[in-house]
Amino acid sequence: MANGPSFFTGGNMNSGNYDSFGNAFKRGFMRMPVAIRTIIAINAVVFVIQMLGGQTLNNWVVPTLGFDPSFPTFLTQPWRLVTYMFLHGGFFHFLFNMLWLWWMGRAVEETLGPRSFTVIYFGAGILGALLDAGIAQIFGTALVIGASGAVTGILVAFAMLFPTAPIMLFLFPPIQARFFVAGWIAIDILFLGSADGVARLVHLGGALGGFLLVKAHQNGTDLSMVIRYVEYMFGKVKPAGTSGSGSKRPRNKNMHIVQDAEIVEEMDQSELDAILEKISKKGYDSLSQEEKRKLFELSKKD
């Protein structure tokens, strides 16, 4: 905590220089990217309700909103494809899902933008549930809850966008993101069918969803349009390019989509790796304004 405030400065403790924990927490929370902030907030609220409601509430909520892969339930009750992602079976189940989402998801959202990030997150979670439903008859059906499939999709997205970024794990040397995520997926494959209570098919489907969606993004598909259409349905501005003749503006192959818009400048890979390593070791807030500008201010919103 070398960068933290000193408690022995000789100053007046009541001088107003020390903020309350509540205000500091609020500031830190509001500095999260908007999509991650919203997803974590909803998960936290639902988890608190689950805990306060106790066994009685959970005996109704989990069977009603958890994902049931049995036929025809997953077809006749499609809301479960989304609602299951916001339910968790315990504190550590909730905590680690949200920590992985925060640790790995921040760079993804700030690179692709909140709309594209949201599409990848929910797309991975939905595809994970569908894969589970499609193959569950082989391994046995069981009710599924938790954000693990969606979070796995974000881990894959991070590894595809920043393959050589170091992942720092306790007691382990730095591991490049591509190898770490590959190992994560390999464990799920090895333990398929084991009676450990982990929905490994959902993880693998989430990984596949993250891979396919990031590939689509890299090939020029504007993932953000999915969210823009939803916004339009709720009275916001109609997405650009949906009126007139319907023709699509030719896309420059040297451009790629970032923060829901296209940019023409690319950062040198070694420079990007150095910045990502700094984020991994010291956090995003350790970046200089110039580094933040280079990393995230290349894109302009429409």
TrEMBL record:
Cellular component annotations (GO), alphabetically ordered: membrane
Keyword Transcription: no
UniProt source species: Gracilimonas sediminicola
Intracellular or extracellular location(s): Membrane
Name this polypeptide is given: Rhomboid family intramembrane serine protease
One GO MF term attached to the UniProt entry: serine-type endopeptidase activity
Lineage summary: Bacteria, Pseudomonadati, Balneolota, Balneolia, Balneolales
Regions that span the bilayer: 34-53, 81-104, 116-136, 142-162, 169-191
Domain DUF6576: 267-301
Matches recorded under InterPro entries: DUF6576 (IPR046483), Peptidase_S54_rhomboid_dom (IPR022764), Rhomboid-like_sf (IPR035952), Rhomboid_protease_S54 (IPR050925)
